[in-house]
TrEMBL record:
Residue ranges constituting the Response regulatory domain according to the UniProt record: 2-117
GO biological process terms on file: phosphorelay signal transduction system
A Pfam family this chain is assigned to: Response_reg
Residues modified as 4-aspartylphosphate: D51
Swiss-Prot/TrEMBL keywords: Phosphoprotein
Coiled-coil intervals, chain numbering: none
rRNA processing as UniProt keyword: no
InterPro entries to which the protein is assigned, alphabetical: Bact_response_regulator, CheY-like_superfamily, Sig_transdc_resp-reg_receiver
Keyword Phosphoprotein: yes
PANTHER family for the chain: RESPONSE REGULATORY DOMAIN-CONTAINING PROTEIN (PTHR44591:SF3), STRESS RESPONSE REGULATOR PROTEIN 1 (PTHR44591)
Protein name per Swiss-Prot or TrEMBL: Response regulator receiver domain-containing protein
Length: 137
């Protein structure tokens, strides 16, 4: 699976990228919304792991462009902000397939990415909460 990780914290980005590569995924890491948008204009990804709040702004445009370029692409939003509930994150963009709160357990991140990608893309329906993450069914 081709994964784009969009995370402005270099330590977290490197850790997530390393673990996802070891899990067998082709992974590319960027640390700005602008870099992610530029890449998404030329490359379709299967999954985007997206830090919602990057340098003080929301990066949901990345989720929208990712699914525009590849309708089967799924987006996992990671947020450290208590401002948004998981259900609010789903309401912000139909591209969001799962939401995880920081701090993220690295094993949970891999499991969520695998679970999200293994499900068929469906129209948004009520959410299912499972441990560390919440998923669209």
């Amino acid at each position: 699976m081709r994964i784009l990780v969009v995370e402005d914290d270099p330590n977290l980005g490197a850790l997530w990228g390393d673990v996802l590569e070891r899990a067998g995924h082709a992974m590319l890491l960027v640390d700005t919304e602008a870099e992610a948008l530029k890449l998404l204009q030329s490359t379709a990804y299967d999954l985007v792991v997206l830090d919602l709040c990057m340098n003080g702004s929301q990066a949901l445009g990345v989720a929208t462009l990712a699914t525009y370029r590849n309708p089967l692409c799924k987006v996992v939003v990671v947020s450290g902000s208590a401002e948004y509930s998981r259900k609010t994150l789903f309401a912000m963009s139909p591209a969001v397939a799962a939401a995880i709160r920081k701090p993220v357990d690295i094993e949970d991140l891999v499991e969520v990415c695998n679970a999200v990608q293994s499900n068929e893309r469906r129209a948004p329906v009520p959410c299912l909460e499972s441990g560390c993450a919440e998923f669209r069914q």
